[in-house]
Amino acid sequence: MARDLAIDLGTANTLVYMKGRGIVLNEPSVIALNRQTGEVLATGREAWQMIGRTPGYIVAVRPLRGGAITDFEITERMIRLLLQRVGVSRFTRPKVVICVPSAITEVERRAVTDAARRAGAADAQLIEQPMAAAIGADLPIDEPVGNMVIDIGGGTSETAVISLGGIVALEAVRVGSFDMDAAIQAYVRREHGIAIGERTAEEVKVAIGSADPTDDENQAEVRGRDLMSGLPKTVILTPEEIRLAIDDVISSITASVVRCLSKAPPELAQDFLVRGMYLVGGGGLLRGLAQRIERETQVPVKMSTMPLEAVVMGAGHCIEHYDALKTMFMGARR
Amino acid sequence: MTYVIGAAAVALLVVIGLIAYTRRPRQDAGLTSFRRHIDALSPESRREILDRARPLQDGEDDDSGDTPQESAD
Fold it and tell me: Which ranges of chain A would DSSP assign to H, the alpha helix?
């Protein structure tokens, strides 16, 4: 008998929670394929290490962008391989709860559920990421108080106000930490005349990136290809430059948080000032982001204790209490 | 014969009545369902799941790989 699963199918990482066990898989959402034969060569961490370093016949891709499936066939193959790795076979078909961005369209929803069913799931239900994040972040969402959660993922950033087990206000933008990486790549190309890869840009962001000035600031030495000569070149980047590069993305995220606050009923708004907002998701780990949001909203911002796992833990709770919580699934409320 | 048909009809009506009674929406159905929903979201209910995540957090190893070289400001 298959154990039911909860999947956080993120743009950056895929996490799988198995009923009764906990998190059994946490890998980058990347798949490497042989361009000529279409065979899968690697998935997860192994495929991630290939990004930007493959010979012509191999392609390492992220099949999700902005939280939505960009290549249905590749996503299905990736889900099938991930499910196989956690023990799902054609004879053991589990129920699956999948976390998706709240802003996805009906077509995108259908693409996700179809991909999961074709990959071996007996039934696939969807839950909004901010709701799952609030459950996983251990917020008191069963009480009649305003709980605010900001989930910053690889391709989407979502802010939700939750009370009495339901979403009261919601705001989502299709920008996330990958857009910060792209902004860094564009800045380095424009200002220093060198081309750097997606992974290098991410590493620069992790090493010296920040949304607001911080106490310990270092410079980073970055190597890339000179656009004029075509030769390898090294440049020094400062934290101020990175802040400037990613400012548009950060402004877009903070603006969506402000819009969500303005949608919240006044009775709940006063709760935020006392209880604060909770930041989850990998993008939330950017240095100075909590301070920047706090400065622009005048509301305290706290970091969740498990920012990377909160979403899948919340979905895992839904799979553990499937019957009691099935009204929370996206299709159930239509 | 008439008595038999009459008794069968009465029995049938009783069965239909019972089925209709059990299938009718109960007035407290929404109340019960909402209570279950809220109870399933309580901190006590979530404790087990969150406890299950903690060993994973403690056991996580740093595989950040080749980050760029940092130089002191």
Answer: 44-48, 72-85, 106-118, 129-136, 177-192, 198-208, 239-263, 266-275, 289-297, 310-320, 322-325
Tokens of A10: 């993120």
Sign of CA dihedral A35, A38, A40, A44: positive
Contacts of A203 in chain B (CB under 8 A): 65-68
Structure confidence at residue B69 (pLDDT): 46
Q: Does the pTM exceed 0.90?
A: no
Nearest to A43 by CA among A5, A83, A3: A83
Q: Compare CB distances from B73 to A141, A218, A223 and report the shortest one's residue.
A: A218
pLDDT tens-digit readout, A133-152: 999 999 999 999 999 999 99
A165 CB neighbours in chain B (<8 A) are: 37-38, 41
Q: How many CB atoms lie within 10 A of CB A190?
A: 9
Which of B37, B63, B70 is closest, CB to CB, to A325? B37
Nearest to A204 by CA among A254, A252, A258, A242: A242
What six digits make up the tokens of B57?
Answer: 């957090």
Q: With both helix axes pointing from N to C terminus, report the angle between A239-263 and A198-208 in degrees, rounded to the nearest 10.
A: 80
**What is the chain A residue with the closest CA to B32?**
A324
pLDDT of residue A313: 95
ipTM: 0.77
In sequence order, what are the beta bridge partners of A249?
Answer: none
